[in-house]
């Protein structure tokens, strides 16, 4: 997880809170903060963050486009460009 995303997540949840919300241990969350975020947890974290963090920001290797993984109609700011996910892009 990059520093920019870490700061946004940490600004909303402590590692302990996030562990409770994601039904895991705080040690696992700490490991996620310092390495690749697990693919199986990406959408859950984005949902908890109310899509302020996008799947693309967490794992661009599996969500290569800024709107990949977003619910239809959501907007995101990614790499200085505005992306809108709608029926055309899904």
Automatic annotation (TrEMBL):
SUPFAM superfamilies: lambda repressor-like DNA-binding domains (SSF47413). Signal peptide: none annotated. InterPro entries: Cro/C1-type_HTH, Lambda_DNA-bd_dom_sf, YdaS_toxin-like. It comes from the Bacteria. GO terms for molecular function: DNA binding. This is Antirepressor protein Cro. It comes from Escherichia coli.
